[in-house]
Amino acid sequence: MTTLPSLYTSHGSPMTALQPGSVRERLAELAADLPRPQAIVMATAHWLSPAPQVGGAAQPDTVHDFFGFPAELYQIRYPAPGAPALAERVLGLLGQAGLDATLDPQHGLDHGAWVPLRLLYPDADIPVVPISIQPERDPAHHLAVGRALASLRGEGVLVIGSGSITHNLGDLRMGYGAEREAPYVRPFITWVEERLAAGDVDALLDYRRQAPFAQRAHPTDEHLLPLFVALGAAGTDPRARRIDAGIDHGILAMDIYRFG
């Protein structure tokens, strides 16, 4: 069986589902270039827990975890099946790595999962197992989560981290947009790209101190932490290819990374 890469995707605003811009083309191109996965394990920035949790629902609900958006957005469903047996396997792999994880038999797919998945696999016919991230834990913890899952890639499982390569929603009120990007966005995404290209994992783990404008790009960590899950899942082949999907609202860089 072909070993799949791992992916990191920036999911942007929930409105990406209705106004996907260039991310639609980039994710469609990526899906066409990948071997079809047997299943997907997805770490999402919108499922937060103190310790790792794994979604074991046989038919995960589509969760509309936002408010104040157009009614059309709340009508969207992504009816992909779950994979309870795979969820148990994920739980076992995390346990073997010394990571205290639990199963949530009811957890659905939040917009950090279903927004990019609708663009990658619109038929919703590939089973999905969501996993949580731990905002109180550091990037090294999330790298370890990804490394625990690396063997799944050889079993036809696509491991995806979903967040946003820059995420400062407080800057929405600053008047940035298509004609005026926030000044920290490109220096930050360039630094990440260069460190990944160099294989400088130590610098990436220390991004809070080393990356330019880290605090502006990420006032909190949760949207970057899935990047480390995807990087860890790449295992011994962490070669990174950046896919540029534009910048939304002048602040949300929509970078996608393919590892391995």
From TrEMBL:
The record's similarity note reads: Belongs to the DODA-type extradiol aromatic ring-opening dioxygenase family.
Query: Which PANTHER family has this protein been placed in?
Result: 4,5-DOPA DIOXYGENASE EXTRADIOL-LIKE PROTEIN
> Which keywords does this Swiss-Prot/TrEMBL entry list?
Dioxygenase, Metal-binding, Oxidoreductase, Zinc
Record's Pfam families? Answer: LigB (PF02900)
Task: List the top taxonomic levels of the source.
Answer: Bacteria, Pseudomonadati, Pseudomonadota, Gammaproteobacteria, Lysobacterales
Q: What is this protein called?
A: Dioxygenase
The keyword Protease belongs to this UniProt entry's keyword annotation: no
Does the entry feature the keyword Metal-binding, yes or no? yes
Q: Which GO terms describe its molecular function?
A: dioxygenase activity
Which InterPro entries does this entry report, sorted A to Z? Extradiol_dOase_DODA, Xdiol_dOase_suB
Q: Which residues form the Extradiol ring-cleavage dioxygenase class III enzyme subunit B domain?
A: 25-237
Look up the record and name the cofactor or cofactors this protein needs: Zn(2+)
